[in-house]
Amino acid sequence: MWFRSWLALAVASSLFSISLVATFAQSTGQDHAQLRPTSSFDSIRDRRARSIALFTEAGKVLQHPRCVNCHPANDRPTQTDLMRSHQPLVVRGPDGHGVPGMTCATCHHENNFDAARVPGHPAWHLAPASMAWHGKSLGEICEQIKDPKRNGNRDMTTLIHHMSEDSLVGWAWAPGSDRTPAPGTQAMFGELINAWAASGAFCP
Prior knowledge:
Largest sheet: 2 strands, antiparallel
Number of helices: 7
Shape: globular
Helix content: 40-55%
Order of helices and strands: HHHEEEEHHHH
């Protein structure tokens, strides 16, 4: 009898704790499966603070495995939400498309091939080594993507277009198979980046 009472109390306590965590996550906007709209930051009057808050929200995408896997710290891409080293062993090559005999296009075709769990896109390749994000803080990534010497020679207008409209970037929201998509939508992500730029493009 005492055991059943103890078990019921333990279950109730666990459920209460889970409820508190969920409520806190909702109230603080910490649901990493979603993106907050730009309008939710309008109440932040300080321009710099609003800019940093916008970029921090966009960082849910930038630091998501769907993006970081193709922005590795070395010449080898990673895979899965755990960001394991790519199997089979492949390397960047001189232009980010692999090396002869093992180019990205050897396995990655124009579309996702879910039967074999192989992602696809016509332009599948690694980001340039200068755009490596893996292991970097959000502040470091922010400074990096603003620097034309390290972002593919993009000014802010081109950077916003790349983030919000490039179809390879957009793959992150339609990764196929059972992969976890990036938070929100590409349109929402693009709006956050645009609002961040308009508010001064400050970094965390």
